[in-house]
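Form 7-S
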Amino acid sequence: MNLPNKITVSRILLIPIFLIVMLYPFSWGEMKLLGAVLPVTHFVGALIFILASTTDWIDGHYARKYNLVTNLGKFLDPLADKLLVSAALIVLVELGMAASWLVIIIISREFAVTGLRAILAGEGEIVAANMLGKIKTWTQIVAISALLLHNTIFELASFPFATIALWVATFFTIWSGWDYFVKNKHVFVNSK
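Output:
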């Protein structure tokens, strides 16, 4: 297993740590961040989530720069993204910080595209993430980070950045999912 794939695996391994910090009833108290008050566990969870998310850029950059792109990496990288984002979104729903119906749309798209990738893999095609899929991932990361941090950057201005960011992420989630299916419709047209 090459270094980019190990970095991707580290992203997956950070998920249970994130879940424990966010869901176990630790009593670390509250903190002030840019004038807003939030539980310390949410701040630590946000840091873990952001750290895990940055590994997505690091592994991809390193793989391309040193020509270490592999089929395993093409499989693991989007899987790690989906697992991390899904775990964070489900936590946000459980904590009452995200609308469940938006999260259902996002996770449903992830299952649908994963199913499409599986069909394509059965046909011998490995589909790497395209630019629209990458934009989708980064809008999700921004939205989740803002929600985990209780919209602290915009709290003083009473601007609902985190909510708007989640709507933007949902839009790109739907658009990129549609794009994957349109570009790969040949799998369904040629099936018997």
